[in-house]
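Two quick folds needed for the group meeting slides. Do the first one here.
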Amino acid sequence: MKILLAYDGSPDAKAAVARCGALFDGEMATVLTVWEGFAEVLLRAGNGFAAASLDFDEIDRASEERAHHSAEEGAGHARAAGLVASSRVARRGVTIWETVLEQAAEAGADLIVLGTRGLTGVKSMVLGSTSRAVLQHADRPVLIVPSPDIARHRAEHLAAHAAPSSNPVGTTS
């Protein structure tokens, strides 16, 4: 199996790498970090200030270098988690989720793994969700790993709201 692991260096991405290693020990994984050119950031942000004095090429080189460092860091975490991992870097295309899907296809990935912060409501609508978009548009299986804090909160919520059962699983009457 070939796995594409989206990695941005966040604690949530690290948790996804660890979970992936626990589930797919010994499998091949490509750790992908997507970076974005500075001009694209400015355009997307709608920032109208004069940026003529900035060296966009130098800023882009530094961004790409940070992305390589992040991807290699993620591959190191993946190897420590038991995966046979390599790193990969891609410049953002139209969207991050489209870039992830393009890279998964290019890598021949059988599975895409992403972490998620578990944003809900307005935050999710405003900030968007790369993991949700990848899931909705993917042509291959996607594993979305919730952050440890979100997973713990959800487990506590489920346990607190679980209806008592007259015949719990694993017991007989």
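Then this one, please, same format:
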Amino acid sequence: WHMSERRAKKAEYVLSEYKGVIRAIFKPHIWLHEEGNIKRLLFEGELVEDHNINHQFLNVKIDKKRGAQNPIRYINC
């Protein structure tokens, strides 16, 4: 993704959304630059299986901003 490396490294969790519903939660361990594109980041991590976190976020519907171009959104919880 095209995103701020500084902000990405502060992220405790990465939430994966499909059709407005959070489908998976990941705990990133390391952020890397995509080969050949310094602005694109990817992460290595693990699927979160903590019941409290999953209960709070998993399968929750989120509001999407109409017309938003960037698929990345930062949420402070």
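Slide caption for protein two: The chain has a mean pLDDT of 86.
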